[in-house]
Amino acid sequence: MKYLVLSVCALSVLGFIKPQYDSGIDQSLHWAQTPYHPLQQSVEVGRSFQTLVKFNKPFKSTPTVILAPIKYDFGDTLPQGFDIQLSAVNTVGFTITYVALSPATIFGFDVSWAAILDSNIYTYELQTNNLPVVKSNKEGTTRSQPLEVTFPENWSLKSAPNVAIFILGLKMVEAWPKITVNMAVITKTSAQFKVIVGQKGTIEFLRVNMIIGEKDTLLVGTILHKTSGASDPLNAVNPESERVKKYEDKITDEIFLKTPRYTLYGISGLYYNFGAFCRFLTKNYLLVKDKISVEIGTWQNSQLLEGQISWFVYVPKPDAGVTDPDCAQVWESCNYQGDSFTVCDRKMSFPKDGWNKPVKSFKVPDGKVLKVYNEENLKGLSIRIEKDLPCMEVPKFSFLQLVGSLGDDKFWDND
Q1: Residue 39 carries which DSSP code?
Q2: What residues does the H-type lectin domain cover (predicted)?
Q3: Residues 197 and 276 in one domain
Q4: Is residue 411 part of a domain?
Q5: In terms of domains, do 275 and 377 share one?
Q6: Which helix H or strand E contains 98, and what residues bound it?
Q7: Does one domain contain both 277 and 386?
Q8: At residue 13, does pLDDT exceed 50?
Q9: Beta strands 331-335 and 291-299: pairing type?
Q10: Which residue has the higher pLDDT, 326 or 156?
Q11: Are residues 300 and 374 in the same domain?
Q12: Of 24, 176, 251, 353, whose CA is between 20 and 30 Å from 333?
């Protein structure tokens, strides 16, 4: 009989990294007198501007990142097209690339972002130019085209989640565009949203992203500005002034009145006069007690007839987290000796200064029990594990014993 002597990770703390959250606003692409940035200076299709966003504090593992534009600022030339792309997400930051899809001038964007490390939160991004229903229209009628996404099989959604959606990219070719995206039918395996186009708005390209979470983790909603007519200050062209209207939304779900809680919002619809610059402004977004408030508006020579934002409030569950991806690959094989128990052999070299990484997840077969000891002489039996166990965090125990006949099966995970 062999005994394995090593520092196995503690079982008192399940192998989850506690949820982490960070957020901010990227304002690196904005109107400049001199020097102009590439999207403002050139007319080349595909010109781009890239910026690196750093987290305020490094994450313990790569988080989920959601982008949500909160200000559009571009010229009146047709067609108008832009694309905001997320890439290179890691534990210290990510990259945003702003791309021009047409020769038209782009002055800039403000993009809010959130980074969440929580296995209950997902994001999904969709880009498409296959939009036959809303791609061509001269009559000014309202048209709606449904688009559906299927969630990956490894998402462990127990029921239909809540989803907030934001517009990251558009290519519009007709005057007076009226475009919104709204969630429709949502199940635990898929989500349908509708692209709604009114007036003579025409879309040739669309990129949206969604943040998705269980209903006890993620609360979502929308706020809509709709013009009241010629007297509406957002509808009146003024060469200089900024004009805004304040809107509020109410939170009634008790779960989302608790702390800690985190919130973010972004643009999900717009309707403006294409004869003027598109300047869609949102500011002073606040979540205070049970109330969300935001100002929607425009400035200079722009007419904003409608503007829609989507918002979410995220509350981490007490037991939420993610499995540590840096779990050490300690186990390679398990020698079954034909007796009533099997002792696993550690094949990796043991560091001189001790083992400071977690052990990979254990998978205990049905009918078997994994016994964990903290002393080499079999004294101090500490815990019996009868189900799968994720990564463990603090070195504590000295060896393991699997009770039962295992045969050739593997009960550890070192992928």
Answers
A1: H
A2: 52-116
A3: yes
A4: no
A5: no
A6: strand 93-100
A7: no
A8: no
A9: unpaired
A10: 156
A11: no
A12: 353
Report residue 215 as tokens.
């209903």
Tokens of 28: 């690196």
Q: Tell how strand 190-199 and strand 278-288 pair up.
A: unpaired
Encode pLDDT of 262-303 as tens digits. Answer: 999 999 999 887 666 788 999 999 999 999 999 999 988 888
Torsion, Cα of 127, 129, 172, 75 (10° steps): 50
Upstream peptide bond of 316 is cis (omega within 30 degrees of 0): no
Both tokens of 158, joined, read 């127990």
DSSP letter string, 217-275: TEEEEEEEEE--STT-TTTS--SS-EEEEEEEEE---GGGGSSS-EEEEEEEEEEE-TT
Query: What tokens were used for 201?
Result: 């708005």
Output the DSSP codes for 376-408: TTS-SEEEEE-S-B----SEEE-EEEEES--TT
Q: What's the number of CA atoms in the CB half-sphere (13 Å) around residue 51? A: 17
Number of domains in the chain: 2
Say whether both 242 and 373 belong to one domain.
no
Does 339 share its domain with 272? no
pLDDT at 211 over 60: yes
Question: pTM of the full predicted structure?
Answer: 0.75
Considering the chain, what percentage of its residues have pLDDT values greater than 90?
Answer: 44
Question: pLDDT value at position 7?
Answer: 28
Report the alpha-carbon angle 329-332-334, nearest 5. 135
**Beta-bridge partners for 64:** 116
Range of 381's domain? 8-15+321-403
Q: CB–CB of 368/402 below 8 Å?
A: yes
What does the pLDDT look like over 349-402, one tens digit per residue?
333 333 334 444 445 555 555 555 443 444 443 344 444 444 443 333 444 454
